[in-house]
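Possible regression after last week's pipeline update?

I re-ran a chain I had predicted before the update to compare outputs. Posting the input and the new output here so someone can diff against the archived version. Not blocking, just want to make sure nothing changed silently.
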Amino acid sequence: MKQLLSVLCVAMIVASCNTQYDKTPSGLTYKIIKGDASGKQKFKAGDIIKINGVVKVKGKDSVLFSSYGRLPEYVPYDTSSRKTHDFTEVLKYASVGDSIIAVAQIDTLVKMQALQYSDVFKKGDQITYNIKLLKA
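New output (post-update):
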């Protein structure tokens, strides 16, 4: 029994270490979780992408956006090379059916003048995006 428990603990540790995140040119860290239909439909210029997702301040209960429990959101696929430091910067690497987990740094967004420090956005905080790409 102790051996089985040891093996399970080692397996859980190895599985948890397999959370490799990539980084965009703006410094946004992200991971794409491939869906069943992954790779079958890439996004192209002019697409409008149907998504479900949650955006919140990491480590806090502050939910900034959630489409669950209401209609999904639609975002345009912008192929310009702007550094946005949000999940839309990752869309070029994803396909319909994939999920995106992205982590944006508040300090970087302040430097980009995309937002200001406040009671919700404090120095050193992060914004997490958990997005499911439904349809193009």
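Follow-up from reviewer: compared with the archived run. The chain has one domain: 21-135. Marking as no regression found.
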